[in-house]
Write a structure and sequence with these properties.
The complex is a heterodimer of chains A (322) and B (328).
Chain A (H helix, E strand, L loop, with lengths): L3 E14 L2 E14 L3 E5 L6 H9 L6 E6 L2 E2 L5 H7 L3 E4 L13 H11 L6 H14 L16 H13 L5 E5 L7 H18 L2 E6 L2 H7 L2 E6 L2 E7 H6 L4 H8 L50 E4 L2 E3 L4 H5 L3
Parallel strand pairs in A: 3-8, 3-9, 6-7, 7-8
Antiparallel strand pairs in A: 1-2, 1-4, 4-5, 9-10, 10-12, 11-12
Helix pairs in contact in A: 3-4, 3-5, 5-6
Chain B lengths: L4 E14 L2 E14 L3 E5 L6 H8 L8 E10 L2 E2 L5 H7 L4 E4 L3 H4 L6 H12 L4 H14 L16 H13 L5 E5 L7 H18 L2 E6 L2 H7 L2 E6 L2 E7 H6 L4 H9 L38 H5 L4 E5 L2 E4 L12
Parallel strand pairs in B: 3-8, 3-9, 6-7, 7-8
Antiparallel strand pairs in B: 1-2, 1-4, 4-5, 9-10, 10-12, 11-12
The chains are: A alpha/beta (322), B alpha/beta (328).
């Protein structure tokens, strides 16, 4: 058994908005082993990006604990957190707004090294930056370019390079390829997988694109309106998904093969509001199997099959398990 | 055969003339769409898909945009030769367009009902009350309760707004519908609902459609014909079967290799190397040759022409010219 690098227990993040409390992340629990990738999927507004930020401590958790390498990070002091950032980094979704337009490529990648005082001389800094640029596939000549001079794929490579600069062990990737064209997306995905192999990196990969998540993840966590609905290995999720929401989500993906159209269990309706949610299963209003119990009692996450967690009152009946 | 075509685009060339040079957005494309048929126009950002659509409606912003040459034959008449006044009657009436971004395509200070009614009044001789009645009908057709007609766009979710945009586009029973990435801004479950609805309405009303998208999955589910665009040219054109099962152009091949598959496990994707060329400075010869793994010296010199490799399946690649069937 590989070592557990990250452990998240009953994590909650609520935001105060004028209409009440917005439950962005509600009771999320999972672990990731070193060198593995956990994919987090869900539709817009399901709290997947918030989850990534709370795990990193960019947002304070409302309740719950996060353990990184055995240490609790949710209660860390400012100094401890500063140290932790060396090991925990993030790649942002939008390569257009996440880079400072007034800094050159070299300055952007070199900044974390400067902040942590990791390079004593200017020559050493130049050398480190050049090495990182080479790793992420940015040509030398671009060192003095500004982000606006580059295309989306190259900008995202800067984002990857900046996250790698401190040689972290853990990276949260928040929709890193969503803004890119497919041919460029494939280049970045390959780069990220190569880096993981070479350096034993651990990723949380947040995305709404199920084919991307299947490609890159070992385990997948499906979220719906702040709650986790299903967590299992990547293969199980696509072959033997158990939760009605996951089934609907998978059926909705257009498959690029002729005649692939399956018997569709179309999800009707849209997401309800995560502000002051009513008790009961949050998916119940869109669920075709919903019964009275679903509207009154919160379902809990249980291990239905080995290493396959589902939060649904009637998961056994729906899937014909005993 | 030819008179079955509802719309026929011949050798369309559209450029943007800017201070920094000429952006060659669309470079001689040929397309035809029959009555009731749907064509998927696939390509990456900057391939010229939207410019093609805007050219058909003559909505390319001028300046800097200019339709340099070509013909767009609709119902036997060339749209490019029509006076602006007549174009106004066609736009939104016989040919209409669903715009990409439902968040910005709607006017925030008009109720959605008024926005639909406006189109109806523009193209039909009806009273205000009748046009509003039609607006309510249209909303119900796209699955929104009629009483919401007096609400404003900000009171609707993204999927609902896209439905409103679709209702506007279909309000006058157009013969030809251009849908420019109608579901890109939406979540998958909502995307599935919207696509199903477009297909159903299209069948019910017998509308022809051009669906612009970068998602090959969406094409496989909604279209019969497919055109793949790269750097302002159509590099491969044929039926769904031709494109998906007899993929011939190296670029189309690369597109398929770049998509992570849901049913097969591959450890590494096969992306197309390099980047989309700058349309103001296109490479010589075949514009795909710097990224093509089969490219030879000839590709940098000679521009490929359309070659019909099987009936209805057209490829623009030197590999298929002069009787070479994909082999050098």
């Amino acid at each position: 058994m590989a070592k557990t690098l990250l452990e998240v227990k009953h994590l909650k993040k609520y935001f105060k908005v004028s209409a009440g409390l917005l439950h962005a992340v509600d009771d999320v629990t999972f672990t990731i082993e070193e060198g593995k990738t956990l994919g987090v999927v869900g539709e817009s507004g399901c709290g997947k990006s918030t989850l990534g930020r709370v795990v990193l401590g960019l947002l304070d958790a409302t309740d719950g604990e996060v353990y990184f390498d055995g240490k609790e990070t949710t209660k860390a002091t400012k100094e401890e957190r500063h140290e932790l950032r060396k090991d925990m980094q993030i790649i942002f979704q939008d390569p257009f707004s996440s880079l400072n337009p007034r800094m050159t490529v070299k300055e952007i990648i070199g900044e974390p090294l400067k902040i942590y005082g990791l390079c004593k001389t200017k020559e050493e800094l130049d050398e480190r930056v050049a090495k990182i640029m080479e790793t992420v596939g940015l040509a030398d000549r671009l060192a003095f370019s500004y982000p606006h001079e580059l295309d989306g794929g190259r900008r995202q490579r800067i984002g990857v390079g900046r996250a790698l600069a401190l040689e972290p062990r853990f990276i949260v990737c928040d929709e890193p390829v969503s803004a890119l064209d497919v041919s460029i997306q494939a280049q970045i995905l390959n780069l990220m997988m190569d880096l993981q192999e070479q350096r034993g990196l651990t990723y949380i990969f947040v995305t709404h694109d199920l084919s991307v998540v299947k490609h890159i993840s070992d385990d997948i966590l499906v979220m719906y309106l702040g709650c986790m609905v299903e967590k299992c290995s990547s293969d199980d999720l696509f072959d033997k998904q158990l939760h009605p929401y996951t089934k609907g989500l998978l059926a909705a993906i257009p498959i690029p093969t002729i005649g692939a159209k399956k018997e569709r269990v179309m999800l009707t309706g849209e997401l309800s509001s995560p502000i002051e949610p009513k008790p009961g299963c949050r998916f119940a209003v869109r669920c075709r199997y919903a019964k009275d119990k679903c509207f009154t009692e919160n379902p809990v996450m249980e291990e239905v099959l080995p290493n396959h967690f589902v939060s649904c009152h009637y998961v056994r009946e729906i899937n014909g398990l005993d | 055969m030819a008179n079955e075509n509802l719309i026929e685009i011949k050798n369309l060339v559209t450029h943007y003339i800017t201070d920094d040079g000429v952006v060659e957005a669309v470079n001689g494309i040929n397309l035809s769409i029959k009555k009731g048929e749907s064509l998927g126009l696939v390509g990456e950002t900057g391939a010229g898909k939207t410019t093609t659509a805007l050219s058909i409606l003559r909505l390319v912003p001028d300046p800097p945009g200019k339709i340099i040459s070509g013909e767009i034959i609709y119902n036997g008449e060339d749209l490019l030769k029509k006076p602006i006044k007549e174009m106004r009657k066609i736009r939104g009436g016989q040919i209409s367009m669903i715009f990409q971004d439902p968040m910005t395509a709607l006017n925030p200070i008009l109720t959605v009902g008024e926005q639909i009614a406006e189109v109806v009044r523009q193209h039909n001789d009806v009273t205000r009350a009748e046009s509003h009645q039609r607006a309510v009908e249209m909303l119900e057709m796209v699955g929104i309760q009629g009483e919401r007609a007096h609400e404003y766009p900000h009171q609707f979710s993204g999927g609902m707004k896209q439905r409103v945009v679709i209702a506007i586009a279909l309000a006058c029973n157009p013969h030809f519908l251009i849908a420019d990435e109608p579901t890109t801004a939406l979540d998958v479950t909502i995307q599935a609902q919207v696509l199903e609805m477009i297909s159903e309405l299209q069948k019910k009303l017998g509308t022809s459609m051009m669906l612009i998208t970068h998602d090959l999955g969406v094409v496989a589910e909604t279209c019969e014909q497919v055109a793949v665009m790269y750097a302002g040219e159509i590099v491969e054109y044929g039926t769904l079967e031709h494109i998906f099962n007899h993929t011939s152009h190296p670029y189309t091949e690369g597109l398929f290799g770049s998509i992570p598959s849901l049913d097969k496990s591959v450890t590494r994707l096969k992306p197309i190397k390099g980047l989309m060329p700058d349309p103001s400075n296109l490479p010589s010869g075949c514009s795909f040759h710097p990224r093509c793994e089969y490219a030879t010296d000839l590709c940098a010199e000679r521009c490929p022409v359309d070659t019909e490799i099987e009936p209805g399946h057209i490829v623009r690649c030197l590999k298929f010219e002069d009787g070479r069937h994909g082999e050098w």
